[in-house]
Please model this.
Amino acid sequence: MPALIRKLIVQVDETRLEMGQPVMPPVRRALAMAVIVNPFAGRYAQNLDELIAIGEELGGLLGDKCVAALGIRPAEAEGYGKAAIVGEAGELEHAAALLHPKLGAPLRRAVEKGAALVPSSKKMGGMGCAIDVPLGHKDAAFVRSHFDAIEARVSDAPRANEIVVAVAVTVGGRPLPRVGGLQASEIEGKDGLR
Model:
């Protein structure tokens, strides 16, 4: 079943200067959010397959929107993350059903490859609630320069019977990273870790 989307929001930020130092190339991050109706709001259901299917649909849709907003080819994406906020008539497991079983594969297609796990967060909240979407390198989880987060918030969501689903895609890591660790240029690409 396709997601019943009330609202789509896409935004891009670009960091060009940090602590008076130029950031070259600028770090660019896109965030795409869908506000959807929760088909299980107000009732318990043992089987959450409907939300799992919606998550699969949203992984591709939101990932494609991020890549388009950044104006890049999918292979140029470096980092990603996902998150969801469930309105009060739902439960935290509804966010898990959206984010974990099937959202990742279409998101990985949208950014070409994506060997690393997609960092995620979830919470319950009301309208205007914010969530940090954790970020990591798409191909190697140990690339420390890409450990970051971007805040997601929709002023009029989630309503009690809604869920906000967010996907973020980045070009670059943090501005001016200098705490060591595996560098993006050193990725071996064998296991999604290094």
User: Anything to note?
Assistant: The CA atoms of residues 129 and 153 lie 6 Å apart.
